[in-house]
Amino acid sequence: MQYSMEIEPANAMLECYRALEDLHSAGKIKDIGAYKFSTEQLEYLLRRCAVVPAMLQAEFHPYLYRKRLVDICRDNSIRMQGFCFIKCVEDPVIIALSRKYRKAPAQIILRWIIQHGVGVLPKSKTPPTSKRTRTSSTSV
User: Fold this and answer.
1) How many CB atoms lie within 10 A of CB 88?
2) 120: which residues sit within 8 A by CB, 6+ positions away?
3) Is 53 exposed, middle or buried (0-12, 13-18, 19+ CB in 10 A)?
4) What is d(CA 24, CA 10) in angstroms, rounded to the nearest whole number?
5) Sign of CA dihedral 124, 130, 135, 140
6) Which end of the chain has fewer CB atoms < 10 Å from its terminal CB, N or C?
7) How many helices (H) and strands (E) does the chain have?
8) Class of residue 58 by CB neighbours under 10 A (exposed 0-12, middle 13-18, buried 19+)
9) Phi, psi at residue 119, to the nearest 5°?
10) How many CA atoms lie within 13 A of 48 on its CB side?
11) According to the model, what pLDDT value does residue 31 have?
12) 3-state helix, strand, coil in the chain (%, to 5)
């Protein structure tokens, strides 16, 4: 479930989430996930929900270290999956680290995310890059 409190009131989010909880209770869906929730949005939801989200996908990278969000997920047994945008890969500090360690910039960022206990699903449109990022957790 993706939600923005800036666009919709919080009660609309709860109404939508409760509909997902009903589907979960009826056995029609196995798990409920959240996408792009902020720390505050997740805390708000957790205070009011009956079924804790199984997964949270959120932006997470060296320039957006969301320790509190990671801690909330761990404390509530929510798997967190992080993603970052291409702008991070083009950052001069990341490029310098990639040269130092002889790894692709994406591998540097993926390793950082994994080292913080957050899952990651790398995405690439080119096969060589895709293969390189799949092996980054063991080779960096």
Assistant:
1) 19
2) 81, 82, 83, 110, 113, 114
3) buried
4) 21
5) negative
6) N
7) 8, 4
8) buried
9) -75, 160
10) 15
11) 96
12) 50, 15, 35
DSSP assignment string, 88-121: HHT-HHHHHHHHHHTS-HHHHHHHHHHHTT-EE-
What whole-number distance in Å separates Cα of residue 119 and Cα of residue 83?
A: 9
Q: 31-82, pLDDT tens digit by residue?
A: 999 999 999 999 999 999 999 999 999 999 998 999 999 999 999 999 999 9
Secondary structure (3-state) at 17: helix
- Average pLDDT over all residues of the chain: 85
Q: At what angle do helices 105-115 and 127-134 cross, to 10 degrees?
A: 30
The residue behind tokens 């804790």 is 52
Q: What is the token pair recorded at 133?
A: 């990022």
Both structure tokens of 102: 């002889």
Does 27 score more than 50 pLDDT?
yes
